Amino acid sequence: MKFLVRTWVMLGVPGLLVLLGGLPGMLRTGQVDPRGWMLPALMLVPAAALLKRWRSEGAAWWAGLGTVGAVLSCAFLASWRVPGLVPVAWLVGGMALAILAGLQFRAFRTPAFTGVRKLVGIGLALLALAMCWLAGEPRIEPSQKSPELAVISGLPLFWRENGQGLAAKVDAPIITLLRQRFTVMPLDSPLALEKSRAKTLLLAQPRAFSMDELVALNAWISRGGTALILADPQLRWPMDLPLGDRRRPPAVTLLSAMFEVWGVKLTPPAAGAGEGRHFLSDGRVLTVYAASGFKDAGPDCRIVGRGLVARCTVGRGSATMVADADLIDDRLWLADPAAPLDPGQWTADTPQFIAQALGGELPAGHRWVRSADALVNAVRWAVLVGIFWAALGAVLFRRRNRPPLDRSVPRPALLKPENGD
User: Fold this and answer.
1) pTM for this structure?
2) What is the pLDDT of residues 12-44, one digit of tens each?
3) Cα(146)–Cα(394) distance, rounded to whole angstroms?
4) Are strands 285-289 and 293-295 parallel, antiparallel or unpaired?
């Protein structure tokens, strides 16, 4: 019985440690990516070495399979989406290398081969470590084609709130990211659209427009322009500027009347609405703050994104409206403000959503934690999977491995019977 319990513990502990080791990274960004467990999976190196020494090589591989099963169970249950094939392949490859490395560290009877096997094990362990670095998503690099993108906004997208003079000129992380796909041109007024060569426009919580500016905006879109409009009926963008400062963006969108002319109505946000994660029908997630929605779509408009987004045809052009402007605040979609070009630091699909609405492409396919309850249940069931797998392995490896016969110790000579005995 003691042997079964010890074997069960030895088979189950490595998977539990690897599973728990990958949770901090997942909690930091909300991304459910099996590659996030590759670095903790290096703990399988010593685990495999100990299992081979005290049980067998088969026990080491059994523990590795249980670890993979626990991690993938957690990944699926936390996001309710099947993990991608490429991340799973990286995880399995890294774990296999870690186990192979651990299996090299058992002492052999022939001293000439002991050092060679240890060097091989160290090399495999270093290769597994290198895979952890190579498996990460690549940074966003500038594209060869950079169409012009006009940006009109009252938000601090091109300047720092507390900066002075030239020090105040700095791009917000969302603009830094868009510059990898577009030639960004900040404009002050829709009247400047006619002279620009831009075919796409990002209009984010702009200041009040005059009637001439509204007419120019509508005419530019009608002639074939593509506009993404972030209109917030209750802006919560945190700023230290005093009320009345002309640099503050309007707290309420001033484009509702134009939306109704196009054929859709912007509704006020629900009372007490705060920060929340908004899941789109295709699995993408946007983090919004006091967002509202659209209703009463006309024949030229349709409401998508579970009410958050409306798309309207305006003449020969199109306009995509989003009932929230806070979502491009980097505090709602980026874990590390200094790394907007690293998809591994994104906490929402906001960059990909914005770029796609403007005609650009950014990496997609992220899986996200559905909720805190989903994460708790995922960890609970993953632990149970690991416990069951370890218990099954304890039964399969219940027989002790007998130590090999040491022929170096001479056997006592057998006494021959004497005559008469």
Assistant:
1) 0.83
2) 999 999 999 999 989 999 999 999 999 999 999
3) 59
4) unpaired
Q: Do 283 and 270 contact (CB within 8 A), yes or no?
A: no
Domain definitions of the chain by residue range: 2-137+370-396, 148-357
- CA separation for the pair 283, 306 (Å, rounded): 12
For the chain, what is the radius of gyration of the CA atoms?
30
Distance of CA 289 to the CA centre of its chain: 20
Distance CA 149, CA 158 (A): 14
Alpha helices in 80-164 (DSSP H): 85-102, 111-134
Q: In this structure, what token pair is assigned to residue 412?
A: 């006592």
* Main-chain phi, psi angles of 132, to 5 degrees: -60, -35
Which own/partner contact pairs does 14-18 have at CB distance under 8 Å and 24+ positions apart?
A: 14/43, 14/44, 14/47, 14/63, 14/64, 14/67, 15/63, 15/66, 15/67, 15/69, 15/70, 15/71, 15/386, 15/389, 15/390, 16/70, 16/383, 16/386, 17/43, 18/43, 18/44, 18/67, 18/70, 18/71
Please name the amino acid found at residue 92.
V
Residues 359, 200 contacting (CB under 8 angstroms):
yes
CA 402/CA 374 separation, integer angstroms: 46
Structure token digits, residue 84: 């991608």
Ranking 105-109, 128-132, 256-260 by mean pLDDT, the lowest is 105-109
Residues 6 or more apart whose CB falls under 8 angstroms from that of 350 comprise 174, 286, 287, 327, 328, 332, 333
Give me the architecture of the 148-357 domain, per CATH.
3-Layer(aba) Sandwich (3.40)
Strand duo 148-153 + 183-186: pairing: parallel
* Rounded distance between C-alpha atoms, residue 12 and residue 46, angstroms: 14
